[in-house]
Design brief:
There is one protein chain. With about 230 residues, the chain is α/β, with parallel strands linked by helices. It has one domain: Rossmann fold (3-Layer(aba) Sandwich). The chain contains eight helices and 13 strands. The strands form four sheets. The chain has a six-stranded parallel beta sheet with strand order 3-2-1-4-8-9, sandwiched between helices. It has a three-stranded antiparallel beta sheet with strand order 5-6-7. It is globular, with a radius of gyration of 19 Å.
């Protein structure tokens, strides 16, 4: 008993640090409507600016139910996409996002690049990430934080599967549940994630559909989720 008491005095943060659990949501930005309206109707994206934001908050509600009302939520959001869409639409989208973070007791980190998003993830304690979710545009090789926000149909900010080696795999809990709700990531990036991060990444084989998020439904996939 004396030995245990001595340990608690010498190392007061050992047990608490080991118990830290983080739930990370990475959120990309929307395309501009003015350019998407030039595309064929069945190829348009982001008619609603808030697809990825609403999907994020739906996931937050799920996490609270599964892990408790005091679960630590970290929301990493690509700010330039919402700044550009706000200017285009004449709406204060960044302020609305900040309001949602406050309402949901969620730590919000704005980022301007894939590297900044990686740095935010790497700053977390070892073995702390229990869940990781990505909402945004993507292809089979990359999370696209930006898509059509500055240049039509072009991404200027991303995390490519080659960038995954920059992420500290030690920040993920051994049993972390990771999922990408972007299109096609299950076709290549999921395999790279497994090799470089060590945890399985559930990804879409096919396109994902956000049309139901405004009605409280999580994104669906036209094909299948990786198993």
């Amino acid at each position: 008993m004396r030995f245990l008491i001595l340990l608690s005095i010498l190392f007061p943060f050992t047990s608490s640090a080991a118990d830290i659990r983080e739930h990370v949501i990475l959120c990309g930005g929307p395309a501009l409507r003015q350019w998407e309206d030039l595309r064929h109707e069945d190829e348009q994206h982001d008619r609603w600016w808030g697809n990825f934001i609403r999907a994020s908050t739906l996931r937050m509600a799920q996490i609270r139910l599964e892990h408790g009302k005091d679960a630590n939520l970290l929301w990493i959001v690509y700010r330039p996409g919402y700044i550009n869409r706000a200017k285009s639409d004449g709406k204060p989208y960044p302020q609305w996002i900040e309001s949602q973070a406050t309402k949901r007791n969620c730590r919000l980190i704005w980022v301007k690049s894939g590297q900044e998003a990686i740095e935010a993830i790497n700053a977390l304690p070892s073995r702390s990430i229990l869940t990781f979710d990505f909402f945004g545009h993507s292809n089979r090789y990359a999370f696209m934080l930006d898509y059509g926000s500055e240049i039509m149909a072009i991404s200027k900010a991303w995390i490519h599967e080659r960038d995954l080696a920059k992420i500290r795999r030690s920040v993920f809990h051994r049993e972390a549940r990771c999922q990408s709700y972007g299109c096609h990531t299950g076709e290549s990036m999921s395999r790279s994630w497994r090799r470089k991060i060590g945890n399985r990444l559930i990804g879409a084989i096919g396109k994902t559909d956000y049309s139901g998020v405004g009605h409280g439904l999580m994104p669906t996939v036209s094909g299948t989720w990786t198993r």
